[in-house]
Amino acid sequence: MSPAIIQGLDAFFRARSWADLEPMPAEQRNKIHPYTRKWAEGGAKLSGNDVIRGFNQSMELRRLAALLFGKLDYIVSPTAPIPAFAAERASPGDDPERPFEHICFTVPWNFTEQPAVSINAAFTKSGLPIGVQIIGRRFDDHGVLKLAKAWETARGPITNWPRPPN
Q: In sequence order, which ranges of 22-75 are alpha helices (DSSP H)?
């Protein structure tokens, strides 16, 4: 994921979301989480060219994935570039101007239709789970699941899941 791709996807989805929100009556629109509403409102300022350029970044992502999986069978990566963040936040920085940075390892596979699975790999020092993601070639869902099962078998059972405070 390059900054240009992230920015392009952000522009396209802001405009698409604003197209859904803009016709809503104000009282209905005001029920949407303020973060999401502010993010989508940014789509109103984008030109048609900005939106198409943003959409074209999804096509660039598909092209890059096709090249990559022409050489590889699987990718193993972190699920996220950061540990878990507070559940009350919409994103780690709670900044609608930077909505995608924390999902940069998962977004590509959603757009390129690659099967992917996230499983627990380890825990942070504070006991929160750390995910590992296994991505495969398009339509190789079975292979991805087999590799995930092999990973889980090699890792062994998890006995120390975090418990919510009482």
A: 26-29, 34-41, 48-68
